[in-house]
Each structure stands twice: as C-alpha cells, then as structure tokens.
Write a structure and sequence with these properties.
seven-stranded antiparallel sheet; single chain; 230 residues; alpha+beta; two-stranded antiparallel sheet; globular; 17% helix
Length: 230
C-alpha cells in the first residue's frame, strides 16, 4: 500500500501496493486478455505438463511507478482447475490451484510519488497467494458486514504470516520448478493451502483448494494462449 514519504510499506505489501483487487477476485477483462501478460518483462510460471486439466487467466497487476511513466506489470496469476465463481455465496467446493508470479523489483517510489515501496521478496508472493485464497474461498453464509469483518481479520493474519516465512506457521516443501527441485515454504488452513518461494528470474507463490500441492510442479509458460477460455 502507498505510504507517506517518511515511511516504507511492509515487506509483503510491495507487489500489491497498487492493486485495486486482491488476486482471486476477477476484474473486467480487457479487449485482449493476454496483453497485460505479454507486456511483462519477466517469465510467467504455471503448473507443468503434469497438469492435464483446465487452465485460465486471472489478472496481471501493475504498480510501483511515478505518474506519467508507462505502467509496469509487477505480478500476475494463472489458474488451473475449476474457476471460483464471482458470487461467493455459491463457491461450493471447487478444486483449483493458482500460480502467482511476482517480478523481482527493487525498492522504489509509490505510484503517487509520495512514498516508498520495499523491494519484492518471497513474502510478497506469500501475501499475494494468501490474499488470493481468501478472495476465492471466503464463507458465503455470512452477511455482507460480517463477511468484511472476516476478510479484514483474515487478511491481517495473512499479512503477518507472509512477513514471517521462517516461522512456525510455515513448513518446508520441495517441488520441481522447470524439472529441478526448489525449496518452498508451505502452510495449510481450513480454506486451502498457500506456498511461496523463488524460481529462476522471479518470485513464486501458489494457492489452492481440493488439489494437493505435494504432487505438483511448476514451469515457465511457453504458450499463454493455453490459458484462454475454451
């Protein structure tokens, strides 16, 4: 989030500072949904060829720029499995896994030029993944006011957890990235699972529900068109 010039954003905030929506909540689709992804200056990661199910686009986010400069894509998400519906009351028990790719970014000015944002880190990927999971699985039986209270509480918890990847709330998990073993930090909750780590050229996060994280692998996406809706 943007801060005053005398402060810096928390470690997990950098990649989400300018995002109007948390990952997992679909935004209006552009005329060319692949355009934001193709404009990125980093590789996109998704589940590797071991995943044979459906693939779909979520969103790519921009931020960390000064007014008047071209917008820079900082992160984005690619979905796998059953897409969570827009109406949370009917989310049911969808089975899905979402991969979040985050660019390596140094500390820089906020979008309005008044504050500073810290460099991206694995905590940024963990925060984005945790926020995405909340946006996809929040309890539908709650009324609007209670739902917002729940989301605020859980988002704060996700922030704290993302800021302490070495803490007891996370456990180690090694998964293949481009065919090579890569260490991640992993945690489960009643709503699903979240993991975060690094991959060649980027920071990597993922979240899911109803799909086990233990048997999956990640790889650079060679053809983004595979994520367009059939």
């Amino acid at each position: 989030m943007d801060t005053s010039s005398a402060q810096t954003a928390g470690p997990a905030a950098t990649a989400t500072a300018q995002a109007a929506e948390v990952p997992g909540r679909r935004t209006a689709e552009p005329a060319d949904p692949l355009a934001p992804y193709q404009a990125a200056d980093f590789p996109w990661y998704g589940l590797d060829e071991g995943w044979t199910g459906r693939r779909w686009l979520l969103q790519a986010g921009a931020g960390g720029i000064r007014p008047g400069q071209p917008r820079t894509i900082d992160y984005g998400s690619l979905g796998h499995g059953e897409e969570p519906p827009r109406q949370q009351e009917t989310h049911g028990n969808r089975r899905f896994a979402v991969v979040v790719t985050v660019a390596h970014r140094p500390g820089r000015r906020s979008a309005d030029g008044t504050g500073l944002l810290e460099a991206t880190s694995a905590s940024s990927a963990a925060w984005l993944a945790g926020s995405g999971l909340l946006g996809s699985t929040w309890p539908g039986q709650l009324d609007r006011a209670r739902r917002q209270e729940w989301l605020d509480q859980q988002t704060a918890l996700a922030w704290d957890l993302a800021d302490d990847l070495g803490g007891a709330g996370w456990s180690p998990l090694t998964l293949p990235v481009n065919g090579l073993p890569q260490p991640f930090r992993y945690r489960e909750s009643a709503y699903g699972w979240v993991l975060a780590g690094e991959a060649p050229g980027v920071l990597l996060g993922a979240y899911g529900r109803g799909v086990s994280a233990y048997g999956m692998g990640f790889s650079v996406v060679q053809d983004l068109a595979a994520y367009l809706k059939a």
